[in-house]
Fold Spermine/spermidine synthase.
Amino acid sequence: MAEIARACSERGELALRRREDGALELRVNGVFVMDDQETSSEELLASAALEAVRRPERVLVGGLGLGYTVRALLADSRLGQVIVAEIEPDLVAWMRSGLVPSILDDPRVGVVVGDVRAVVTDLPDASVDAILLDVDNGPDFLVYNENSAIYTSDFLATCRVKLRDGGVLTVWSSSASAALESAVTTVFGKCQVTPVPVRLQDRDETYYVYQGSS
């Protein structure tokens, strides 16, 4: 394992590593977050939103990661603007410098360095067609405990207010969560849950995408 970059913030430590198998890996506080080898669930997070929205002109993504959710969105020519909310400035800097393959030079992409809760709250009502949340590992396995508020019905209700008619919210989770399904159902009336089988470093796992439509 070769370390490419390391940074510390008030939330803890970020590490960018190159594994022996060649994969680029991101860890936060020592916890595996993602790599560039298994990206199917990030891509599904994007495709599920795109398929549900008739005209995805303006989309907000919570969490930059290694950029694969945003990259999947940008493949859709209908997309006009992607707002990315990322709380860790060093992660944004690594992508801008080329340590992480960048999607930030696309003119449709704008990055706001800040907590996704504040970024969403500051949006005008009914101003985005989709909100995609991939901020932490999900409500039951948090890297940063304060992110628990992201998965509550209170914050999801704020998200719904910011969606245009026919808009969609999609939320990524590393594990099945009855609480998250209940919160999405409470706010949107129903919740679509899509399991995503993945092969993660020689073991089988299942990630989940939760979706509610306005």
